[in-house]
Design goal:
- The chain has about 140 residues and is an alpha+beta fold.
- The chain has one domain (about 15-135).
- It has two helices and three strands, in the order H-E-E-E-H.
- It has helices spanning about 5-25, 80-135; strands at about 35-40, 55-65, 70-75.
- The protein has a three-stranded antiparallel β-sheet with strand order 1-2-3.
- A hairpin with a 6-residue loop joins strand 2 (about 55-65) and strand 3.
- It binds zinc ion (ZN).
Length: about 140
């Protein structure tokens, strides 16, 4: 509550520049896929398979959250690059949205603090004027 108006103004100026960057991220046109890719490593269980002794099999799984409950889908290797791009872009858009929520909270706090600081100035000004008003002699006939 003791922050000076000029430091609050500097913070608001900073937030003003931040919002331009954040919104810039929202102008994208690329398709988004709500989901994520992960690598599943497992042993297949066949006794004579190479995985029994060495490295487990690795496959890329898409966890897709588009329609109702999440589904795990095994994409073909050719599908993986496009899926990776769309799911990473989706994650980026969601992160930007979370930052926008933070930004909004921060700016509302700042704006409220600035209002309070200016009200303090206004009240001080008002008290000063009222004090000088009282010092004046009363005008006759009123
Ligand atoms: Zn195996």
């Amino acid at each position: 509550m003791t922050k000076s108006l000029s430091s609050l103004r500097a913070q608001l100026r900073q937030a003003q520049q931040q919002i331009a960057t954040l919104l810039e991220d929202c102008f994208g046109r690329d398709p988004l896929l709500p989901g994520s890719l992960y690598t599943l490593r497992r042993k297949c269980g066949k006794a004579n398979c190479r995985c029994a002794q060495g490295e487990p099999h690795a496959s890329t799984i898409l966890t897709y959250r588009g329609e109702g409950r999440p589904q795990n889908i095994t994409p073909t290797p050719e599908q993986i690059p496009a899926l990776r791009q769309m799911t990473e872009e989706y994650r980026r858009v969601r992160q930007t949205r979370a930052q926008l929520v933070q930004w909004q909270r921060k700016v509302l706090v700042l704006v409220d603090e600035m209002e309070a600081a200016r009200v303090r100035l206004g009240e001080a000004e008002f008290q000063k004027r009222r004090a000088s008003e009282l010092r004046k002699p009363r005008s006759p006939g009123r």
